[in-house]
Amino acid sequence: MSDADCLFCKIVAEEVPAEVVHVTERTVAFRDINPQAPTHVLVVPRDHYPNAAALAAGDPVASAELVSAAAAIATAEGHEDYRLVFNTGAGVGQTVFHTHLHLLAGRSMTWPPG
Ligand code: AMP
Ligand code: ZN
């Protein structure tokens, strides 16, 4: 299940380079190219789903695996505190329409987000 025009499908297929930090059966995690925190990793399902809700409906096991992978990466990078974000829709800043969980850690953060 991939989309020929999708950047993150190409990263999963190793057709586009990325700094991969963690892999599981259903997920691949790589560093964000424009990091917003000392640790900024994107955890994506290997299969193409446009957003988090579509993934949860279509593959709930992979959906859970995104969160557990993010937690494992945070621990491996020494962070007890971290933020997980799914942007859903262009109106809130989603720019790549292949589900990705942002893992942000390593600096203090404010709430609410901008
Ligand atoms: P979003 O705005 O939630 O759709 O997040 C997309 C994220 O993908 C942004 O934080 C970008 O910096 C990141 N990004 C875009 N292209 C790449 C790439 N080639 N490798 C790694 N991260 C990327
Ligand atoms: Zn994709």
From TrEMBL:
A motif (Histidine triad motif) lies at residues 98-102. One of its GO terms (molecular function) is catalytic activity. The active site is at H100 (tele-amp-histidine intermediate). Pfam families: HIT. SUPFAM superfamilies: HIT-like. This is HIT domain-containing protein. It comes from Nocardioides marmotae.
